[in-house]
Write a structure and sequence with these properties.
alpha/beta; binds pyridoxal-5'-phosphate; seven-stranded parallel sheet; 26% helix; TIM Barrel
């Protein structure tokens, strides 16, 4: 396992997530930025740390000093890594990123003639430890996964003398479930660890994160009373409105305005009006015992009702990844 803990462990909080993953003894941790790897070292992580995105040139030395394993996508980046290892006076380990269709990083699988020999020759101060690719559509089915695996294979098959123990890794969460036959050295799960679904017909994750907010104000609205910026909502009759202390400034997507829902008092209630930066209003007409201090659930389960992370993502027109990484630091993380 090479669990991905980039972007603050998908927004949940890397300093809490990593110790919990540590107890499962993963091979290492995956990040996207050099600063994230350096932060893991500062937390005392001793396992390998792989930076799975190209590093900016001016961060390469810092990565080497932090014993991070960089992903390399170009001969220029490999030369820069060689120079950094010499400057720091150490051996730097690196992974070959092969682009098999994602297009955002990696050496182009179709042009191996142009780079393979130079990229894989012995270089002083460098140790080539892994080769990988990233899947672009594993959540949608297996056809593209088979093809991307084949493309990586055409590159690896050309290696005359691969280093002993060269790691091969391709599977993200969806790939790990759909095509476990391609789990070679490690798999790189992310979203499934944090409670996001991985496609139709696949196992559902355990819910991991829930989002709750306090009621801070309750009012009885008279017919015609308007609500929120743009007054996009007006009471059609006598209604009871509850103001929740959460808004888009906490990461509740503004796209849920007039369409999302919350759980309160054992019922599912609609979000009404536009979500503001700091507060959101729900219609609690007919819900008994809602008062200041009551807790509403925006994501999670309460008393048999459930609003899933993926349901919220769909309603907001996005994906679970963006919902989780969008939760801001103002929203306190409470670990149970
Ligand atoms: C983010 C990432 C993953 C994890 O993907 P999930 O879909 O979250 O499982 C795996 N590999 C790479 C290179 C990534 O950037």
């Amino acid at each position: 396992m090479l669990p991905m803990v980039k972007a603050n462990a998908y927004g949940l909080g890397v300093s809490e997530v990593v110790p919990r993953l540590e107890s499962l003894e993963p091979w290492g941790f995956g990040v996207a930025a050099v600063s994230e790897g350096v932060a893991l070292r500062a937390m005392g992580v001793e396992r390998p740390i792989v930076v799975c995105s190209p590093a900016p040139p001016d961060e390469v030395e810092e990565a080497v000093r932090g014993r991070l394993q960089l992903s390399i996508s170009s001969l220029g980046a490999l030369d820069a890594l060689e120079r950094a290892a010499r400057a720091v006076g150490t051996t730097a380990e690196w992974h070959l990123d092969v682009d098999t269709g994602m297009g955002r990083s990696g050496f182009d699988w179709q042009r191996a003639d142009a780079w393979l020999t130079d990229a894989t020759r012995d270089r002083s101060g460098l140790r080539w430890v892994g080769a990988y690719t990233h899947l672009h559509s594993a959540d949608e089915g297996v056809a593209t996964v088979h093809e991307q695996w084949r493309r990586l294979g055409t590159v690896l098959d050309r290696l005359e003398d691969p280093p002993d123990g060269l790691m091969i890794h391709v599977l993200n969460s969806a790939g790990a479930f759909r095509t476990p036959e391609y789990a070679r050295s490690v798999v790189r799960p992310g979203i499934f660890l944090y409670g996001g679904r991985i496609g139709e017909g696949q196992p559902s994750p355990e819910p991991v994160a829930s989002v709750h907010a306090r009621v801070v104000h309750v009012r009885d609205a008279t017919p015609g009373s308007t609500l929120g910026y743009g007054s996009t909502y007006a009471a059609t009759g006598a209604e009871r409105w509850a103001t929740l202390s959460i808004g888009y400034g906490d990461g509740l997507p503004r796209a849920l305005s007039n369409r999302g829902s919350a759980l309160i008092g054992g019922q599912r209630v609609p979000i009404i009006g536009r979500i503001s930066m700091d507060v959101t209003v729900v219609d609690v007409s007919g819900v008994s015992e809602v008062k200041e201090g009551s807790v509403a659930t925006l994501i999670g389960s309460r008393e048999g009702e459930q609003i899933t992370l993926d349901e919220v993502a769909e309603q907001a027109g996005t994906i679970s990844y963006e919902i989780l990484t969008g939760l801001t630091s103002r929203l306190p993380r409470v670990w149970t």
